[in-house]
């Protein structure tokens, strides 16, 4: 498990939401009366992406459950200190409510509301923040359309439209990339001819105001789309920056440079 920093060593900061998982098992069935589970492990799949970005900035990673438990106002504090926000494999509903809302022992006889955190993010982008929205089973529409981003208020800030049905496109043979705008600062100078096969991606439709920089060669679907919202910038990468879809992607010789250039673009350094 990755240790979280207690201090920052760089001037700029990125908040990275998602890409944590609990592994439980193996599970043994040795009797008709029950099962036995041995071992559990908390793993951060975003370690490789974090290492790539920490050449430029300090990164604070938060798991989905940590995001969900943030007290009202805490996300705003994180955003105020951040030049960029990464959302990767996070359901939109993780941003809603707050567990103590359901605690009857803490309820008072009064109406309770607090700011919609997705509207907070949208306003933060509009004021100049940079968002990187990355793919996965819980991104965009996601598995069985559970992710809910196409029905969220943040959809207005994205340069793509989410499907309202499951959007996972997968193949054990893998998919390759085709660059459409080779001179764009996000993709310029990278070894796209050596881009390794990725095992899946989220299908989306680019908006008229979005610019498709890279597409899936085999299907023509967008892979990297960028756009602007107010004073801010948004980059969407429709596959996973980490395993399982990205298990080969992490080995790409331009992996670090791609994410560094992406970060520099959303925070308007190029």
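Sequence proposed for the structure above (270 residues):
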């Amino acid at each position: 498990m990755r240790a979280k920093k207690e201090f920052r060593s760089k001037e700029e900061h990125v908040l990275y939401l998602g890409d944590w998982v609990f592994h439980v098992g193996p599970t043994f069935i040795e009797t008709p009366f029950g099962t036995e589970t041995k071992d559990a492990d908390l793993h951060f799949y975003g370690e490789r992406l974090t290492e790539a970005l920490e050449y430029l900035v300090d990164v604070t990673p938060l798991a989905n459950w940590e995001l969900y438990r943030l007290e009202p106002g805490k996300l705003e504090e994180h955003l105020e200190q951040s030049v960029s926000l990464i959302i990767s494999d996070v359901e939109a509903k993780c941003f809603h409510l707050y567990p103590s809302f359901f605690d009857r022992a803490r309820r008072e006889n009064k109406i309770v509301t607090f700011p919609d955190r997705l509207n907070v993010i949208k306003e933060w982008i509009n004021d100049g923040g940079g968002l990187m929205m990355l793919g996965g089973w819980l991104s965009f529409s996601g598995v069985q359309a559970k992710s809910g981003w196409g029905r969220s208020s943040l959809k207005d800030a994205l340069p793509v439209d989410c499907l309202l049905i499951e959007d996972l496109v997968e193949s054990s043979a893998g998919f390759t990339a085709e660059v459409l705008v080779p001179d764009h600062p996000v993709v310029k100078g990278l070894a796209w001819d050596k881009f390794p096969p990725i095992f899946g991606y989220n299908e989306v439709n680019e908006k008229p105001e979005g610019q498709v920089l890279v597409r899936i060669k085999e299907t023509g679907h967008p892979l990297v789309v960028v756009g602007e919202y107010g004073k801010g910038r948004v980059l969407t990468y429709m596959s996973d920056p980490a395993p399982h879809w990205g298990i080969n992607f992490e080995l790409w010789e331009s992996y670090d440079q791609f994410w560094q250039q992406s970060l520099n673009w959303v925070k308007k350094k190029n």
